[in-house]
Give the backbone structure.
Amino acid sequence: MKKLLLILICLFVSFEVKSESDDLSGKKLLCKNNVLNLWEGYKFVSEEEVINYSYWLGGKVIVTRGKYTTSLTQIKLTFHKKDLVPPKIIDRQELKSGFLHQTLTSQCRIFDGNFESYYKNLHEKDERELKSKQKI
């Protein structure tokens, strides 16, 4: 009986306990990587699906659908089927993001706006700034 109890305790400890806040549906995060000058928006559309909006300075917005899983400390985002690109991780306490097993370099914040209009305005601002710096 003691062995059975010990086995059950070990199994319970080995599986990460999910919290009720695992369904992030309707929530949005906006992350900025100052090193790469990259903006990334994450729109959680269901209990497991997320949409990523990526934008580099002067570029276009790239929209990618993916999956996410959660734990008590992080959100794991996967956007490629064949694992050619490592998953992205968002720290739930610090709201920092980056690739799995790397330093989290992007700072995130909760976002209440519309990604399409936000990125359109950002692109127009970047375009004006780049044009003002042209020398020829």
Remarks:
- The radius of gyration is 19 Å.
- Residues 8-19 have pLDDT under 50 and may be disordered.
- The chain has two helices and eight strands.
- The longest strand covers residues 62-70.
